[in-house]
Specification:
Helix content is about 55%, strand content about 5%. By secondary structure, it is mostly helical. Strands 1-2-4-3 form a 4-stranded antiparallel beta sheet. The longest helix is centred in the middle third of the chain and has 22 residues, at about 145-165. The chain starts with a helix and ends with a helix.
Length: about 325
């Protein structure tokens, strides 16, 4: 396989398109499913062989989104029962909602799905919108609209991609030794994670634990939930950061899109849209979002107060 030049070229093209987030051509999968599957697996091993965690995560994130589009658009797998079977292959326990509950709950959703609470907790995105308290739960089954179930499948697929890369280190090593990695040097230069330059404003003291945790996650190239992105953007804007500095900070996110990120930060800053500048979420809100690592143990009501409080204590 590693001697097949056309396969290697096809795999590198797959990697290149995933990293640049080009729309996936479903016709390729329909016309030659086996060849596409092999090319996708080799593309994953090449991404892992770069030993660059950001490139691997970006590839997995992009491929999982292509997977979602395939689920929605490919004839033959748009059926709910088919998607439930696909979920089973990904380790998700689910069934049609009418097998669990009847009446108004079913009527409230379009094509509702019941997913076992253990599967839900494992794969639900770390975002307040996905908190189980905001969901209908019946006898240990979480009732979801089809769109949300597809998002759960997407998260599970991304985890599976990363797990496959981690469990096949020997295959990744063979790829690294057999393929001329100079063929993807342009990808490494373009997508390799940049060091995060976090400006310190010495007059305001240290960052609170909640914001430090978010900044550390950004440094590590993690995919933050929307609530965390909103919180850190408001916090840094109120500390005096410019919009472009914050945009650069988010470049380490696997799903980074410069145009969208810039607009969202400008919107939070009150520069576009409704021209409303958003306040930093208070500590109660941060805790309810699952973003307070101390469970309201800092002794302040808003993250902006933390640095000043610590500075005052030191001065005394």
């Amino acid at each position: 396989m590693l001697q097949d030049k056309s396969l290697i070229e096809r795999s590198i093209a797959r990697l290149r398109k995933s990293l640049s987030r080009e729309p996936y051509n479903l016709r390729l999968c329909l016309d030659s499913p086996e060849e596409e599957a092999v090319a996708a697996r080799l593309a994953l091993y090449i991404a892992a062989a770069t030993k660059n965690n950001y490139i691997l995560k970006r590839f997995a994130d992009s491929e999982s989104k292509n997977f979602s589009e395939t689920l929605r658009k490919t004839p033959g797998i748009q059926n709910l029962n088919c998607k439930i079977e696909i979920g089973k292959d990904l380790g998700i326990i689910a069934k049609p909602a009418q097998d669990v509950v009847t009446g108004i709950i079913n009527a409230a959703f379009k094509t509702p799905v019941a997913i076992k609470w253990t599967s839900y907790l494992r794969y639900a995105p770390p975002d307040p919108f996905w908190a189980m308290i905001n969901r209908v739960v019946v006898k240990g089954w979480v009732i979801l609209p089809l769109d949300d179930f597809e998002r759960i499948l997407e998260e599970a697929y991304e985890e599976q991609i990363l797990r496959i890369a981690g469990e096949n280190e020997l295959a990744v090593g063979r790829v690294s030794a057999s393929i001329d990695m100079s063929l993807i040097q342009d990808l490494l230069r373009k997508y390799a994670q940049r060091p995060v330059n976090i400006t310190k404003l010495s007059t305001e003291g240290p960052d609170p634990p909640c914001m430090k945790a978010i900044l550390d996650a950004l440094k590590a190239g993690e995919n933050l939930p929307h609530a965390a992105r909103f919180a850190i953007a408001t916090y840094l804007l109120h500390k005096g950061w410019e919009v472009e500095q914050i945009v650069d900070l988010f470049r380490t996110s696997p799903d980074f899109n410069e145009k969208i990120t810039r607009y969202q930060v400008q919107h939070i800053a009150g520069q576009v849209g409704g021209r409303k500048e958003y306040a930093v979420p208070n500590c109660e809100t941060m805790n309810s979002w699952g973003l307070c690592p101390t469970n309201l143990g800092c002794g302040v009501k808003n993250p902006l107060q933390y640095g000043r409080r610590v500075a005052i204590k030191k001065s005394n």
